[in-house]
Amino acid sequence: MLEVNDENPARRASDLRVRPTEARIDTAALAHNLREARKAAPTARVLAVVKADGYGHGAVMAARTFMDAGADWLGVALVEEGIALRNAGLTAPVLALGGQYNDYELLLQHRLTPLVYRAEMFDALAAAARERGVLADAHLKLDTGMGRIGVLPRDLPALLEHARGVKEVRLTGLCSHFANADLRDPTATQLALDEFAAAKRAMKALGFPLELAHLANSAATLDLKASHHEMVRPGLMLYGSAPAPRFSGLADLRPALTWATEILHLKRVTAGTPISYGHKWTARRESVIATLPVGYADGFRRSLTNRSEVLVCGRRVPQIGTVCMDMMMIDVTDVADSAQIGSEVILLGAQGEERIDAGEMAQRCDTISYEIFCAIGARVPRTTL
Question: Against a cut of 0.85, is the pTM above it?
Answer without folding.
Answer: yes
